[in-house]
Amino acid sequence: MDYQFLWRPVIQSLPQMLGGASVTLQVSVLSMAIGMVLALILCFAKMSSFAGLRFVANIWIEIARNTPALFQLYFFKFGLGAVGILIDSYITVVMALAFNTAGYMAETFRGGYAAIPNTQLRSARSLGMTAFQAQVHVMFPQLLRAVYHPMTNQFIWVILMSSLGMLVGLRELSGETQFLYSKTFRAFEYFAATAIIYYLIAKLVLGLMTLIGNKVFGLNRGGVA
Amino acid sequence: MISVKNVRKSFGDVEVLKGIDLEVNQGEVLSVIGASGSGKSTLLYCINGLEPVQQGVIEVDGMSVHDKKTNLNHLRQKIGMVFQQWNAFPHLTTLENVALAPRKVKTLPKAEAEALAESQLKHVGLGDKMHLYPNALSGGQQQRLAIARALAMEPNYMLFDEATSALDPELVGEVLDTMRLLAEEGMTMIVVTHEMGFSRDVSDRVAFFHKGVIEEIGEPEQVFGQPSSEHLQKFLAKVR
Amino acid sequence: MISVKNVRKSFGDVEVLKGIDLEVNQGEVLSVIGASGSGKSTLLYCINGLEPVQQGVIEVDGMSVHDKKTNLNHLRQKIGMVFQQWNAFPHLTTLENVALAPRKVKTLPKAEAEALAESQLKHVGLGDKMHLYPNALSGGQQQRLAIARALAMEPNYMLFDEATSALDPELVGEVLDTMRLLAEEGMTMIVVTHEMGFSRDVSDRVAFFHKGVIEEIGEPEQVFGQPSSEHLQKFLAKVR
Amino acid sequence: MTTVAVFGDLQPQDLLFLGEAALRTLLISSVAIATGSLAGIVFGWMMAAGNRTVQFAMNALLDIFRSVPLLIQLILFDAFVSIAGFPMPAFWSGTMVLSVYTSALVASVARGGIESVPASLRRASRSLGLSYWQDMRYVVWPVGLRSVFPSWVGVSLSVMKDSALVSVIGYIELLKASQILITRTAETFFILGIAGLFYFALSFPLSRAGQYVERRWQQS
Amino acid sequence: DKLDDVLADGELRCAVVLDFPPMGFRDSNNEPVGMDVDMCADLAAAMGVDHQVVGVTWAERIPALISGKVDVAIASSSDTLERAQTVGFTVPYMVFQFQALLKEDADITAWEDLESARVGAAVGTTYESEFLAYKDTHWPDAEGRYVSFQSENESFLAVSQGQVDAVIVTDTAAANVVNSDKYGELKLGPVAPFGADYVGMMTLRQEYGWINYLNLFINRQIRSGRFDELYAKWIGGEPPALDIPGVYY
Ligand SMILES: Nc1ncnc2c1ncn2[C@@H]1O[C@H](COP(=O)(O)OP(=O)(O)OP(=O)(O)O)[C@@H](O)[C@H]1O
Ligand SMILES: Nc1ncnc2c1ncn2[C@@H]1O[C@H](COP(=O)(O)OP(=O)(O)OP(=O)(O)O)[C@@H](O)[C@H]1O
Ligand SMILES: [Mg+2]
Ligand SMILES: [Mg+2]
């Protein structure tokens, strides 16, 4: 191996890379938040009795789940551009990731809902709660608990997939790295550092989510069954 | 008084209740026995308005359950219900489980609802478990919690749907004891059960369901002692 | 003969069996009763070599179960075992369930193994269910399938671990009848059970487990009629 | 000024170009799914059956592949084999990265499958005298496979979709080919539509087929 | 060394960026063509070997080189000092000016108008970093936004779709795009005030013999008039001077 590793430029540009990492986090949190809200709406749309709503929800969910995330990103980037809708790469990435998250989490919500024994709803109604009260006070907290773990996984996925931002010119962690790399041509060193940063971010977020999960749902507050 | 008149109920094409007539008077304990799938649970759901009926009328204290004008949420406060399992809300502590409906439905202030909850929990013997979550309770304790939760709405009637059949044999006793206590206090109850001993001891009347009809109904001595229906004889032989 | 000598067994720090001594003679039916967690299942697993022990010796027909030199797969053919639930292999038909071990373990040819399976299935009354998958069977039928499957290995001993306690009350009878049949045919059996009636009728001896020790052992009349241990008295009062 | 046409209209042979690229997508994903699944099953078994040290080590190792973006893994591996002096065509480096990535995902699925087999079922088979490997082969494998088959289908489909990322190291698969055509012809919707339809046509029926098989197994 | 290897193999492998018309792109048969491609063919012919063009993106140029997947990168790569710490450059074989490319109806006339516009460029190019550096020093509080694109062609698409008001490209590309109607009505914008972009061929840093050979090849291309020929074929107009006045090298 003739190649000499040169880490100094990487260390010097660490602040810039961390700046990119903070964009990564921003984009991910934003996509996740929007995606979750959309997912809940899609979930109810899919369970609704109105065929039009069900149709739209189905199309959305199936496209999100059956095409590559990169395809979805290109679609938002080129496709919307072609019809004259102007968006910059930051919003493109957020839209694509939120679109995908909504599709996947909508199904998770539906599954979580179905997993709650129907005696729960019946118990609540038999106590005289209205349908809405039963949903809010009994079903929703359990739903949230049921989807918390998949939601955490989706969050990590979103963080990792936000690296696609690099391919549409967003200067998040990967994009920033590519920019730095093209100045010095030190591919391995820069991307190795980036890989480590992603790993640390993923672990940090996972740890944080687990901590929050334990705090909110408590280890001793098991679900049913 | 609960009165059920000529009630028919189907799920899709399957008729599950084929014309049920029944009256349960104030202070009476009616137990309902019958094979799996005979429609026992369905009847309880209909009485509580949790399922619509295709024909017939059910009245509770003179109010028609399936009448559009009836405020079901209001009516249901009069009727407590305990299911076979998964009664307890897993995300709330024992105390919160019991206090939830008084607070949200009766809109009692928090302190008052909790005082009520506390007294009901003591009533069923869970005074020391108030701050535990349901999964820290045994199955029997969870069922007693469900009873306390229903009682906190101060119902006139209690419906039990095989409240003990998901329990380990050792835990059945404590739940039955709590139900017995209620019966002694004069609560009007409909009890779907597989526990023949309990049914014989506690009920004023026993109804035997077979394929969606009440094949036999009467005092326990008669139903268990001199069953006239052939199906009932077979059923009793099986469960011993 | 099965002989258990001063067996101690822990899971991690928790000692579950605290010195068990027991002998079961040819043709004898021993039933084991006791509260949940007292170590009944664990003892059966140890006898079958499914769990290691920390101390003591278990011998089956003179072969030491936990000796390194013992061929466990061979020994286990002598001991049939039926568990509380999830016994039946869900991916195989009833016939295939029973024929699997004869084919793979005894390496019988397919036809022979199936003939054997068929006769055992008829023995337990499942002659007409041979080509169904287990999930088309009732719980009781699944347990009888498990019995047939064990019998197909022509064991000298049968161990039952609460074989009926996951069943609906209506289905318990048919499984107990099959076990009774086995006992009458002279099979040596250890039966962990909550069915006191069955235990009283069928057993030659009854052992009462309490927290990892055998607190009382003797003929059914004595154990159920004049229990000397206080724990046993309490236990019997609870399960009635 | 210039006499050369830099940009052109979409032509019939461009569809062929897309079709070939689609085949490459199929090829690289099937190779990766096949090898990755085999390795993943072995890893999954090690995690389910191994002692704590093995479990911990395997988990930590495979976790790396689940915690670093596939895009970065591809670039990094490609750069690494470059400087290490083992140049290989994009197909091979892409396949290797995708396979390892797949195996990391399949490992947790396989582990779940093995652990999903109820202990009493395994005890039942051992108590009949079946050996460890017979138990694995005749009970754990078929029963566990059924319980995690849908997850495995899910992993495979996501690898198929993620194979689009191999384009960053120069492998011209479907999405890269579409991108080439889009930039040449500016026929954005038509080309993206074809690419999307292809992925959909592959993914949707497979996931439905997976659900169908799952339901049939549940009935049997 | 590499020179011997290529001669012995009988095949020269060149990395060319194929979304950088007219230097490198794909024709209607999706085959690589362009000035860089012709350069590669000429070089192979001079050595008496076959040639193979390996299409790369901007980002893949270096890994392809270092891994030995290619022998030389003829990929319009600017010869910065920073990059020369990693790879070896030849003398320049081409020079570019940077120019804004605009939509026909844009009302940008002077370079300064870009201050408040949305401007894009292909990621990792010299003109991207030059533009960003210029923006930071001259327009520190510019309200306009900057966007990078993955390839040159994407940036054409973006400006034609109106995703940005202007993209910075090379003069060669700009002329080409404007003459084609594929991207709709586009026009040439102001030329960038920052310097010309000299690009060299790249190979491994330690391949002196090979670099010497390549330098001589570039020299001969110009002496023989082949460079002018290629320039006329792919770009048209007056070929630029590749020498730098007042300097030896
Ligand atoms: N939601 C439903 N949709 C369709 N069929 C139903 C539904 N609920 C119950 N059934 C059917 O109605 C019949 C009566 O059910 P029900 O639960 O009332 O019986 P049960 O007497 O309570 O039996 P068990 O002792 O098993 O609880 C059964 O055949 C059941 O399959
Ligand atoms: N694999 C295990 N790891 C740790 N502890 C175990 C394990 N299996 C059983 N135990 C513990 O050993 C004790 C005895 O268990 P065992 O299953 O033998 O009781 P049992 O008498 O069969 O009870 P039951 O009537 O509920 O089946 C229990 O406290 C149980 O929690
Ligand atoms: Mg019922
Ligand atoms: Mg047990």
Which descriptors would you attach to this protein?
heteropentamer; A: 225 residues; mainly alpha; MetI-like fold; B: 240 residues; 6-stranded mixed β-sheet; 4-stranded antiparallel β-sheet; binds adenosine-5'-triphosphate; MetI-like_sf (chain A); cell membrane (chain A); transmembrane (chain A); transport (chain A)
Q: Total number of helical segments of chain E?
A: 9
Count of individual beta strands of chain A = 0
Helix content of chain E: 25-40%
* Whole-angstrom Rg of chain E: 18 Å
CATH architecture of chain A: Orthogonal Bundle
Structural class designation of chain E: alpha/beta
User: How would you state the average pLDDT of chain E, rounded?
Assistant: 86
Number of domains of chain A: 1
Q: Identify the overall geometry of chain E.
A: globular
Oligomer: heteropentamer
Range of helix content of chain A: over 70%
Report the C-alpha radius of gyration of chain A, rounded: 21 Å
Question: What structural class results from the helix and strand content of chain A?
Answer: mainly alpha
**Largest sheet entry of chain A:** none
Task: Please characterize this protein's 3D structure.
- Chain D: It comes from Saccharospirillum salsuginis.
- Chain D: Belongs to the binding-protein-dependent transport system permease family. HisMQ subfamily.
- Chain D: It is a multi-pass membrane protein.
- The complex is a heteropentamer, with 1 copy of chain A (225 residues), 2 copies of chain B (240 residues), 1 copy of chain D (220 residues) and 1 copy of chain E (249 residues).
- By secondary structure, chain A is mainly α.
- Chain A has one domain (8-217): MetI-like fold (Orthogonal Bundle), CATH 1.10.3720.
- Chain A has helices at residues 8-12, 14-47, 51-66, 69-82, 89-115, 118-126, 131-161, 173-184, 187-217.
- The mean pLDDT of chain A is 88.
- Chain B has helices spanning 40-47, 72-77, 94-104, 110-123, 139-151, 169-184, 196-202, 220-225, 230-239, and strands spanning 2-11, 14-24, 29-34, 55-60, 63-64, 79-82, 157-161, 188-192, 205-210, 213-218.
- Chain B has a 6-stranded mixed sheet, with helices on both faces. A 4-stranded antiparallel sheet of chain B has the order 2-1-4-5, covered by helices on one side.
- In chain B, helix 4 (110-123) crosses helix 5 (139-151) and helix 5 (139-151) runs parallel beside helix 6 (169-184).
- Chain D has 220 residues and is an all-alpha fold.
- Chain D has one domain: MetI-like (MetI-like fold, Orthogonal Bundle).
- Chain D is 82% helix and 0% strand.
- Chain D is built from 8 helices and no strands.
- In chain D, helix 1 packs antiparallel against helix 6 and helix 4 crosses helix 6 (132-162).
- Residues 1-5 of chain D have low confidence and may be disordered.
- Chain E has 249 residues and is of the alpha/beta class.
- Chain E is built from 9 helices and 12 strands.
- Chain E has a 5-stranded mixed sheet. Chain E has a 5-stranded mixed sheet with strand order 9-8-10-7-11, sandwiched between helices. A two-stranded antiparallel sheet of chain E has the order 2-3.
- In chain E, strand 2 (25-26) and strand 3 (32-33) form a beta hairpin.
- The longest helix of chain E is centred in the last third of the chain and has 16 residues, at 208-223.
- Classes of the chains: A mainly alpha (225), B alpha/beta (240), D mainly alpha (220), E alpha/beta (249).
- Chains in contact: A-B, A-D, A-E, B-C, C-D, D-E.
- Chain D binds chain E through residues 1-9, 11, 13-14, 17, 75, 78-79, 81-83, 85-89, 168-170, 172, 180-186, 188, and chain E through 18-19, 21-22, 25-30, 33, 54-57, 59-60, 63-64, 66-69, 151, 153-154, 156-157, 160, 175-177, 179-180, 182-183, 233-237.
- The complex binds adenosine-5'-triphosphate (ATP) (2 copies) and magnesium ion (2 copies).
- One adenosine-5'-triphosphate (ATP) binds at residues 11, 16, 34, 36-42 of chain C.
